Amino acid sequence: MGVLGFTRKRYISNKITHIRNGIHRNYRYSDYYIQNKYRYISSSNCTKYDSILPVLIVGAGPVGLVLSLLLTKLGVKCAVLERSTTFSKHPQAHFINNRSMEVFCKLDGLAEEIQQFQPPVELWRKFIYCTSLSGSIIGSVDHMQTQDFDQIVSPVSVAHFSQYKLNALLLKQLETIGFTVHSHEGLDHRPLGEKEILMGHNCISVEQNDNFINVTTSFVKEGKHIKKQIPCSFLIGADGAGSTVRNLVGIELRGEKDIQKLVSVHFLSQELGQYLMHEKPGMLFFIFNPGAIGVLVAHDLNQGEFVLQMPFYPPQHKFEDFTSETCKRLIFKLVGRELADINVLDVKPWVMHAEVAEKFLACDNRVILAGDAAHRFPPAGGFGMNTGIQDAHNLAWKLATVVKGIASVSFLSTYEMERRPIALFNTDLSIQNFQAAMAVPAALGLDPTIANSVHQAINNTVGTFLPSTLQKGLLDGIFSLGRVQLSDFVLNENNPLGSSRLAKVRRIFEEGKSLQLQFPAEDLGFRYREGALIPETDSEGEPIKPEPPTGRRREYIPSADPGSRLPHMNIRVLSELTKEVTISTLDLISEDKLEFLLIIAPIDSSYRLAHAALTVADEYNILVKVCVMWPNGLVNGDARTKTSLVPWENYVDVVEVRQPSNSSSWWDLCKMTYRGAILVRPDDHIAWRVKSTVVGDSRVEMKRVFSAILGS
Q: In terms of domains, do 162 and 241 share one?
């Protein structure tokens, strides 16, 4: 039985078809040729001979590293450039949503490692609002619900894991498959090879040629700046919010700039970690008192690792004024007492934006943006890193499809068609969530919009003639007067004003109108409306529009609509029933092959459709695996499948495992009849489905489907 393999018979069949069709499809094989051969260029300033690399990724953050892993698994040669000389230890992003964890399930146990090394969920499931870390609690919100752990809608739960730790696990996986990190080495005398990560290399120019991109980099060797040209078939800008690649190709960002300026203080304190772990464990602490205001991110209470975020207002406030000693004093005010073991590791300024690139592709689809280079959101809801990881997941199989000659370069336009609307949607959602975060201080009498207005008024009036020191004193004085409202005298139940404000805050929490951590409907239920799929329309033939974001938690409802992520259901492979091995429907999609998955029921019409799909896929030089979904308790063996699909052997028989036993069947879950069929792409998203039997010639229909998906 051909369960997960690509049999020798099928391989020979594909080779024959490849030769038969090659004369008509030579335009598709230029990138495949580049992957396996060498081309040479010359330059008066740079090394003379270089090989053309299929994919060059700029940026060694989570997005760039995940993309390099996914591409390598699919057999695409790639390398990574990183402008920093070392990997940052600043924790940065830390929340990994359901969909990203599902992607990590495909990466050789990465999801399991994250779950093993992350803090226990009881230590981070809450957001806590307080007057100081050692003082009274204004309120708390538990963001984890029973359904977040029951694995009904997803085979894996969300995680709390600092970005630099995630990077370390990704690097370990890359090194396991042959990648080498070069920390202090330039490429002045040799071409860039695959599976290399070059640190300290700045991308300084991008030049488009006929069928490749010339990237000029600069690195320092023995105190000298040395330039190097690296030709590549595709250049990926995964180099963060200030993307050099984006700027070099002239792509603009659109949206709201400079929402808020903040200082991020990374520090360690075992004393504080142990105190919070036992007294008031949480992930985020929103602290409001007359001395200071800030948000503390508890990256790991057991290790005592924290990041404090504080707003600041230039030019009256200067970043250089935030010395380690100044930061310590502010931390002590927020904690409510001094800490004996505090160690400030790093202080960074950053600016909050809500912007999306006007386009994700340039230079005839050969320069592509991903992650923060393509979009930057407020850090409310953890959309930044998660959206970027899902960009990489969408892009990897499409790049592989083009590099392997299955589709033309124009196919990559579907990446922008699919991912840019998701970025715009997540921008709106993160803005709404950020506004929800501002609701609590506003209810306490500290409306952040008023603070911004006061700051702007000072800049536009006295800021034009008063010395900076007096401006700072005036601004700090006004802010201090405002923070008096947070004193114990005002903010208590015996004070009518304080009691009213505390009651308003409680209503915000009870109604779910405060800052939210999870958005299951959006994290798992995002849907591509057009792209590498066959879209569905409403009764009037119009494309179905997504519901606008609400800024509140909404539960995920499984869907088999085209563009949606394949619903999760526990199943067992028929040949392994005796082993009692349960897997997810998502596990049926291969992570190391460009393979579509066709899910059918064991009925004659669906077997005929599967036979047609396998035949047509062979003509298109793509792989299709057929999954025959047997109902719970009605398994009739796999002999029927083998007979029905002969001579094809790339199939798998599975049986539903319902939890609980009286839950919906697979086809009910998908809101379809058992006479339907679902075609799933290599990135787990549904490319096409038919709710009932295909009307007409199945082979003609499958030709239409694959032609539309691949743009051929």
A: yes
- 135 lies in some domain: no
CB 218 within 8 A of CB 204: yes
In this structure, the answer to whether residues 408 and 311 fall within a common structural domain is no
Structure tokens at 616: 């047509």
CA atoms within 13 A on the CB side of 454: 20
Cα distance between residue 171 and residue 383, in whole Å: 22
Instruction: Average the pLDDT over 402-431 and give the result.
Output: 96
> Is residue 580 classed exposed, middle or buried when 0-12, 13-18 and 19+ CB atoms within 10 A define those classes?
exposed
Residue 562 · residue 688 · CB < 8 Å: yes
Quick one: three-class SS letters along 63-96? HHHHHHHHHHHCCCCEEEEECCCCCCCCCCCCEE
**Distance (Å, rounded) from C-alpha 247 to C-alpha 374?**
11
In tens, the pLDDT along 590-625 reads 999 999 999 999 999 999 999 999 999 999 999 999
Query: Which amino acid is present at 536?
Result: E
Q: Could you tell me if 96 and 213 lie in one domain?
A: yes
Query: Concatenated DSSP letters for 338-391?
Result: --TT-EEEEEEEEEEEEEEES-SEETTTTEEE-GGGTEE--SSSSHHHHHHHHH
Provide the 3-class DSSP secondary structure of residue 190: coil
Lowest mean pLDDT among 35-49, 386-400, 411-425: 35-49
Going by DSSP bridges, is the β-strand pair 595-600/677-680 parallel, antiparallel, or unpaired?
antiparallel
Out of 433, 463, 487, pick the residue that ends a domain. 433
Residues 6+ apart with CB under 8 A from 381: 95, 429, 430, 433, 516, 517, 519
Q: Given this model, what pLDDT does residue 28 score? A: 37
pLDDT at position 338 over 60: yes
Q: Are residues 244 and 286 in the same domain?
A: no
Q: Which two tokens stand for residue 87?
A: 């990997």
Residues 193 and 81 sit within 8 Å (Cβ to Cβ): no
Asked, as a colleague might, if the bond just before 315 is cis with ω within 30 of 0, I would say yes
pLDDT band for position 318 (cuts 50, 70, 90): confident
Q: Read off the pLDDT of residues 159-180 as tens digits, 9 standing for 90 and up.
A: 999 999 999 999 999 999 999 9
